[in-house]
Design brief:
With 131 residues, the chain is mostly helical. It is built from five helices and two strands. It has one domain. The protein is globular, with a radius of gyration of 16 Å.
């Protein structure tokens, strides 16, 4: 599968895999912090970021109506969390809260993402269930 970057140049598979692995590690750490240190709203559901991203790699999920119906909310919430993280990066360190769990938008969007993932995992399951 050839993925093109923002500039239209093809990204090699090894680079995409390495970036995805780093993204999974960082987002897993963020989810662990929200699970342990949330004050009023805690992350209570089980999360597996690598499996979550695997659901987006199902072949032709956009064209298969039931898959589209189940995976689209998850895809939208992953995009929203990614955009939150990108916005935090562009705003700079002076605009983000040092204590991670006090970044309320990121926390809310992450909790929504994990809830969407739980529903999607339950409905879509593994390859056998998708068949």
């Amino acid at each position: 599968m050839v993925v093109k970057g923002n500039n239209g140049i093809a990204v090699p598979d090894f680079r995409r895999d390495a970036l995805e692995e780093q993204f999974c590690a960082k987002l897993t750490k963020v989810c662990e912090i929200f699970k342990e240190y949330g004050q009023e709203a805690k992350l209570e559901d089980h999360f597996d970021i690598k499996q979550m991203l695997k659901m987006r790699k199902i072949k032709d999920w956009e064209k298969i109506k039931p898959f589209w119906y189940f995976v689209t909310p998850l895809n939208n919430s992953i995009t929203k969390v990614r955009n939150d993280l990108l916005k935090m990066h562009t705003d700079g360190v002076l605009m983000i809260k040092y204590i991670i769990e006090e970044n309320t938008d990121l926390k809310k969007d992450t909790i929504d993402m994990v809830k969407n993932d739980v529903v999607t995992q339950w409905l879509m399951g593994d390859e056998q269930k998708q068949d």
